[in-house]
Amino acid sequence: MTPSRLFVVPAILLVLTALVMKLRMNDSSYYEVTPAQVAFIVAGALVVGVGALGVSGDRNLRVALLALAATVALLFGAISSLRIVLLPLGAALLVLLFVALAGRRSGKANTAALGGAGMALGTIALVLAALQPPRVYCTASGGGTSSGGFFDTQARSSSGSSTVDGTQTGRIEYADEVVTFECREGRLVRFERARR
């Protein structure tokens, strides 16, 4: 990959991430995209682009893919409930990567391994940013709020109520604002913010 393509890969990833986020939005939930989330997405796309620059040649592609797979297994093993499977798998892939690198004794192979790991880190950042939970969601049996994922660091309290006709209302209180919402028949019909 040539340096002129450094911005092509991130641009494609940014468009795909935005498309995934747009497809997740519907009339039964409200998603917020924060500046921190946008910065995380841009950084993730750039890390993938820079990592892709380090991968060259067929022999080095295998090393890069091994590094990518080991990084993904170790990171998802650390943050998921599948750690009993993913951590040993990641460790085994890491040993295979070290054996492959020791046999090559090539600077390009080392660069490809770093590129593969970078591509994995950037891709994981994009996935985590794109799949953040909705701020508010409605279902046929009620409504609720979520934690907001990695990018919601504000302290808050929430409350809600239901009426006989199936309408659910909720309130989320932050230090500087109050959010109110209303769900009816599984659809979000009102979402409002008010500054304190």
Describe this entry's structure for a reader.
The mean pLDDT is 84. The chain is built from five helices and seven strands, in the order H-E-H-H-H-H-E-E-E-E-E-E. The relative contact order is 0.14. It has helices at 8-24, 35-53, 58-79, 83-104, 107-130; strands spanning 29-30, 136-139, 142-145, 156-162, 167-174, 177-184, 187-195. Helix content is 53%, strand content 21%. The chain has 196 residues and is of the alpha+beta class. Strands 4-5-6-7 form a four-stranded antiparallel sheet, with no helix packed on it. Strands 1-2-3 form a three-stranded antiparallel sheet, with no helix packed on it.
**Binned strand content:** 15-25%
What is the percent of helical residues?
40-55%
Measured distance between first and last alpha carbons: 52 Å
Mean pLDDT, all residues: 84
Strand count: 7
Order of strands, main sheet, comes to 4-5-6-7
Task: List the total number of helices.
Answer: 5
Low-confidence stretches: none
Structural class: alpha+beta
Largest sheet features: 4 strands, antiparallel
CA-based gyration radius = 22 Å
> Could you spell the SSE succession in H and E letters?
HEHHHHEEEEEE
Shape: elongated
